Amino acid sequence: MMIISIGNGGASRMRLTHDKIKNWGTVEWIKPLINIMMSGVNQTVHYQLKQIYQAVGKVEQYIRIEPDLNNAKSDMDDASPKNLKALKEAGIKASENEDIAEKLERIVQMLLDNH
Questions:
Q1: Which of 68, 72, 76 is nearest to 87 (CA)?
Q2: How far apart are CA 45 and CA 24, in angstroms?
Q3: Is the separation of the CB atoms in 64 and 8 below 8 Å?
Q4: Structural domain of residue 84, as residue ranges?
Q5: Between vectors from CA 17 to CA 32 and to CA 29, what angle results, nearest 5°?
Q6: How far is 18 from 11, CA to CA, in rounded Å?
Q7: pTM of the predicted model, to two decimals?
Q8: What is the pLDDT of residues 31-83, one digit of tens each?
Q9: Distances from the Cα of 54 to the Cαs of 6, 28, 30, 44, in angstroms?
């Protein structure tokens, strides 16, 4: 069994500085808090899957891809033309990233080998 985990790039974008958040109230913390909790869940599941696949000697069959979205927003409800264009550009740029390109090649090869 092969698992391909594709992130939405949201975790890598969250940058909170003291100056930015020092006067935040409850309302301002809602979205960042959800992102922090989801990031923790993602990292935990990623770690656990790596450990499981390593334990059964199939490390190559679990692949995690976490693209950098650059200027695109990862918000699921932002389907504006501007954001869709930015997401497309981020996807193209991610596919040109050496690490991601290697993972995509591994996925294709495993699929071809096991058709």
A1: 72
A2: 30
A3: no
A4: 3-113
A5: 25
A6: 18
A7: 0.71
A8: 888 878 877 888 899 999 999 999 999 999 999 998 888 888 877 788 999 99
A9: 19, 40, 36, 15
For the chain, first and last CA: distance in Å?
13
* d(C-alpha 107, C-alpha 63), whole Å: 8
* Residues in the chain, total: 115
Which amino acid, residue 44? T
Nearest to 74 by CA among 2, 7, 3, 10: 10
Residue 51 backbone dihedrals phi, psi, to 5 degrees? -65, -40
The residue among 5, 14, 31, 13 whose CA lies nearest residue 69 is: 13
Number of domain units in the chain: 1
Per-residue pLDDT for 12 more than 70?
Answer: no
